[in-house]
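Write out the 3D structure for:
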Amino acid sequence: MSAQRMTRELDKSRLGRQLRLASGLVVLAISLSGCGSASLWDKFTAKDDTFKEEPADKLYNEGLYLMNQNKDPKAASKKFEEVDRQHPYSDWARKSLLMSAYAFYNAGDYDNCIGAATRYVTLHPGSADAAYAQYLIAASHYDQIPDISRDQGRTEKAIAALEEVVRKYPTSEYATSAKAKLEGARDQLAGREMAIGRYYMDKRDYTAAINRFKTVVTQYQTTRHVEEALARLTEAYMTIGIVGEAQTAAAVLGHNFPDSKWYKDAYNLVKSGGLEPSENKGSYISKAFKKLGLG
């Protein structure tokens, strides 16, 4: 046998041994990997197998403790949610759903509060606590009312939710609080209209300004902004020469708010034009106040 042939035979022999060794290592690796995966799986399944359902009342009371003693509403809400997860059709689940909404509200997590409270009202509309759940929805919107320089969509949602409390549960203790918040929310919208109206007055766009002040007079007569709105209407109407409406605005202002500083300004403005405050009963200004029994 030549040296070259002998060398080739030796190389084939070595290559065969290397392939057999490599195959054996792959099989061993797969076996070890399989054993490792099985072991890891066993650990996971063992963990799941050791799970024990906790009594609903225990979870509920732990939630109360976390909320009242530890002042930790976020942790409390998790306990209440766990009651619903483990005991979904129990009376404890119903109570926990409401407490979860309350815990979210205390934590300032308004979106989750609205979600939990809405679910409560949907699932338990006849419950004695449905009024409170509806109130939590309204309060969550109300607490997010922005300042008057920003979009007032949240304020409008708060008003709608608060009106729902008053409409559905007029004799509940929450209706009184809802009415007070309604005034605050409406005052906010009126303030927004006044700010825009003043802006138009500064720009000498009196028609646009009048439309804003008109909204305050016709929709938000019970807010603190109505006195200024009537005075601004007097000023705007006098400026563009619609003196009849100016006289009416001043007269209604004087009749309803005789001691107002705004009335003094409106009165002097009308007098400067050689006129007196005089109410036109057919004016929208007069009708708006007659409707509320204020005219």
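The radius of gyration is 37 Å.
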